[in-house]
């Protein structure tokens, strides 16, 4: 060995501490190599196995026949309101027989005026008629005698003509006296204010002791007790409504009535771009009537039925103002689908957009899921959705 080689080996000699470190590393490496590869793979596989986040039930969308309804708002008003006024002027009101809310019949006396002065005028007119009839009788007799002497020359033609004219004048005075008597009798009739039709008194201004003029309003009456709902409908929706269409009207106090469309207004308000639809309501007169004139009411027009695809209400999740359902995929994970909800049928909701009929939709537990969650599926009873639809259809 040369001197250079001896120098190299001498330099490679290690200190005892370094030798111990190297030995420990060699043992560790050998130990790792001695571990079985199959054991490592089994442990990794065990740690990576996914677990379901939730146990859910699922169902598929069901077909249903849903009612087509159109909502509207409006006011309840009288079908026709009659104004009952005074037809006699300058007479004192002595009695008022009805009040607001009373149900009256046609011809029923509502108020009475003093008839003393009118009775006197009637008596005077009757006396005038008797006088006219007496004068007419004398004129007729004179005219008859003049006709018998017409060819004898005892009377001139002028005299005979005067007798005939007096006869005609007397007859005219009888007719005038009869007309005067009828006028006074009519005034006597007007001392009693009567109802022009069946109905309900809606307003009263008549006061006992007052002296009113001709035409002064005394009462207002809802004719025949009929009310109507004047619904405001936009021009775009107006074509869907026809006379005879049923409408369910609900008042602010919770009362409901079913009426029918009587007519549609021929014009549209240029300010609101809406038209009035007049719906006849069933007659309900009296103080306990559920609907009152002047009430605000909302309602729905029933426009028939249409086919629809529905899901249970529990399966629709509302987040951030939008509706979602969760579809269960073949790999056991769910997909969040944005849908458009429509009408309701009991506890089911119509889905108009975003879902196909063959999709498997999560029902219970949908509100706790997120996109891509792994779930365990437990099938829901198949008869449950059909039972809900049948009961809601009733």
TrEMBL record:
Q: Which organism is it from?
A: Massilia rubra
Start and end residues of each YknX-like C-terminal permuted SH3-like domain: 308-375
Q: Which PANTHER family match?
A: HLYD FAMILY OF SECRETION PROTEINS, MULTIDRUG RESISTANCE PROTEIN MDTA
Pfam families reported in the protein's UniProt record: Beta-barrel_RND_2, YknX_C
- The CusB-like beta-barrel domain sits at 231-301
Q: May I ask which residue range the UniProt record assigns to the signal sequence?
A: none
Stated family = Belongs to the membrane fusion protein (MFP) (TC 8.A.1) family.
Recorded protein name is Efflux RND transporter periplasmic adaptor subunit
């Amino acid at each position: 060995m040369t001197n250079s080689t001896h120098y190299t080996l001498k330099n490679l000699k290690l200190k005892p501490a370094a030798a111990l470190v190297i030995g420990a590393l060699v043992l560790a490496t050998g130990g790792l190599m001695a571990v079985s590869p199959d054991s490592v793979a089994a442990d990794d596989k065990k740690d990576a196995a996914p677990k379901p986040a939730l146990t859910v039930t699922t169902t598929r969308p069901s077909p249903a026949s849903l009612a087509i309804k159109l909502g509207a708002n409006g006011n309840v008003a009288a079908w026709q309101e009659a104004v009952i006024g005074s037809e006699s002027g300058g007479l004192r009101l002595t009695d008022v027989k009805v009040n607001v809310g009373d149900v009256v019949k046609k011809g029923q006396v509502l108020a009475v005026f003093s008839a003393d002065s009118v009775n006197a005028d009637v008596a005077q007119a009757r006396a005038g008629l008797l006088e006219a009839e007496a004068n007419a009788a004398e004129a007729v007799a004179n005219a008859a005698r003049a006709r018998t002497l017409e060819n004898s020359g005892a009377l001139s033609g002028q005299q005979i003509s005067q007798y005939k004219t007096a006869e005609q004048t007397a007859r005219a005075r009888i007719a005038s006296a009869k007309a005067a008597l009828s006028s006074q009798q009519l005034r006597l009739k007007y001392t009693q204010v009567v109802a022009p039709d069946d109905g309900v008194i809606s307003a009263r201004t008549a006061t006992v002791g007052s002296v009113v003029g001709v035409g002064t309003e005394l009462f207002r009456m809802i004719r025949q007790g009929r009310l109507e709902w004047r619904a405001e409908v936009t021009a775009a929706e107006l074509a869907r409504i026809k006379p005879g269409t049923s409408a369910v009207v609900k008042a602010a106090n919770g009362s409901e009535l079913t009426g029918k469309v009587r007519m549609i207004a021929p014009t549209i308000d240029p300010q609101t771009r809406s038209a009035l639809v007049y719906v006849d309501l069933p007659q309900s007169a009296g103080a306990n009537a559920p609907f009152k004139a002047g009430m605000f009411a909302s309602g729905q027009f029933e426009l028939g039925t249409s086919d629809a695809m529905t899901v249970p209400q529990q399966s629709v999740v509302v987040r951030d103002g939008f509706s979602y359902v969760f579809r269960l995929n073949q790999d056991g994970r769910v997909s969040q689908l944005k849908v458009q909800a429509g009408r309701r049928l009991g506890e089911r909701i119509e889905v108009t957009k975003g879902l196909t009929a063959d999709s498997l939709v999560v029902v219970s537990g949908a509100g706790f899921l997120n996109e891509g969650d792994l779930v365990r599926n437990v099938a829901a009873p198949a008869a449950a959705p059909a039972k809900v639809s049948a009961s809601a259809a009733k």
